[in-house]
Design goal:
This protein is of the alpha+beta class. 47% of the residues lie in helices and 21% in strands. It contains eight helices and ten strands. Helix 1 runs antiparallel to helix 2 and helix 4 crosses helix 6.
Length: 239
């Protein structure tokens, strides 16, 4: 009797609850690679070149997805990797936000979207991984770029006493539940090779926020203005 199909085991580095959140998003680029492979024998030289470019991008996407999952799993499990990344010194959150904006600037330009930033100097001593804070800000920006129907995204940083508030505000119509809970956000409509970015989607960002002990909220007003907010605690740095 033929054996029933048994799914490939989940990679050990990624707990099952986290894998379940991302499995759908991972399946899409894998299915695209399979489609390209099936189509290759009948393609023209130009189509072969395009397929090769797509294969490279999809492979990079899958690698980036797995790296983000593995890193977040290490944080969630309190592994030694977290201790190596944890920032316990003064962090200039305005500079961290500028770095995230600079990372996606070419993509935003390619999409015809401007980013206005109000980032007063805000320095706090935090005990969360600075690299993941930047990943969170980048994820918010990529989500805004992917979904905005306007021409500007506003980023503001405020020192609210006990918390630092970072808002990403953009104009968009109704955003589908699928995109709101997606594990990854892929802003890949640009024609230039560098005008492509993949980051944590809002679904995975909610997990990251809980792991890091920061606040994350999303709200939309009646005039289709969406606001994504990070609330970051920490001690004020001397001076």
């Amino acid at each position: 009797m033929a054996q029933k199909h048994v799914p490939n085991p989940v990679p050990l580095a990624i707990p099952s609850w986290l894998w379940a959140e991302a499995s759908h998003d991972l399946r899409q680029p894998l299915q695209a690679l399979e489609w390209i492979a099936l189509a290759l024998p009948a393609t023209s030289p130009d189509e072969l070149r395009r397929s090769a470019d797509n294969i490279v991008q999809l492979s990079q996407m899958i690698g980036r997805m797995h790296a983000l999952l593995a890193g977040l799993a290490a944080l969630a499990e309190g592994s030694s990797g977290r201790g190596a990344e944890t920032v316990t010194s003064a962090v200039a959150l305005d500079d961290l936000s500028r770095a995230a904006i600079a990372d996606i600037a070419e993509l935003a330009e390619d999409r015809g979207v401007g980013i206005s930033a109000t980032l007063p100097a805000v320095t706090r001593t935090v005990t969360v991984p600075g690299r993941w804070l930047q990943e969170a800000v980048t994820g918010l920006l990529l989500h805004a770029i992917k979904n905005t129907r306007g021409k500007n995204i506003a980023v503001t940083l405020q020192d609210a006493g006990g918390l630092i508030r970072l808002d990403v505000v953009f104009e968009a119509g109704e955003i589908s539940p699928r995109l709101l809970k997606a594990a990854f956000v892929d802003a890949s409509y640009g024609k230039k090779p560098s005008a492509w970015k993949l980051g944590l989607g809002l679904g995975m960002l909610s997990h990251l926020a809980r792991v890091l002990g920061i606040g994350f909220t999303r709200r939309a007003t009646g005039n289709d203005i969406h606001t994504l907010t990070l609330l970051i605690g920490g001690e004020r740095s001397p001076g």
